[in-house]
Amino acid sequence: MNSRNSKRKNKREISKSTSGSTGVSSSGGDGGYNAGIAVFSYIIGGTIVWSLIGWGLDYLWGTRWIVLAGALLGVAGGFYLSHMHGLTSNGTTTGEDSAASGPSKDEEQ
Questions:
Q1: Dist CA 77 CA 23 (whole Å)
Q2: Which of 15, 61, 62, 73 is the most exposed place for a label (fewest CB within 10 A)?
Q3: What's the DSSP call for residue 102?
């Protein structure tokens, strides 16, 4: 019975160390920091690029509002890219309870 419990514990430790979302390191390294920098880069980069496109269109067409629409489009695009790359997901790390993530697979044999 003791070996059965240790096998279950080992399975949980292996599944926790191998599961994780993209961009988030489950080894306790700097994966969260890197994911944060990537999200920040997507949002700021999108804002700058689309604001410049909007500014250029404003200059050509003689308007003043397209730069703001471009900035908002850049922010929305940055959040979209971050979400699609899995950088905004809420992964579990060691020490957290993973009960909310679904049923346990310990009973599978």
A1: 18
A2: 62
A3: -
Model confidence pLDDT, tens digit, residues 18-46: 445 555 555 556 778 898 899 999 999 99
DSSP H helices, 19-65, are 31-61
What's the residue count for the chain?
109
CA–CA separation, 109 vs 107, rounded Å? Answer: 6
Whole-angstrom CA distances from 8 to 34, 49, 92, 108 are: 32, 51, 19, 10
What six digits make up the tokens of 70? Answer: 């471009």
- Residues 22, 85 contacting (CB under 8 angstroms): yes
In 3-state terms the chain splits into helix, strand, coil percentages (rounded to 5) of: 65, 0, 35
3-class DSSP state for residue 21? coil
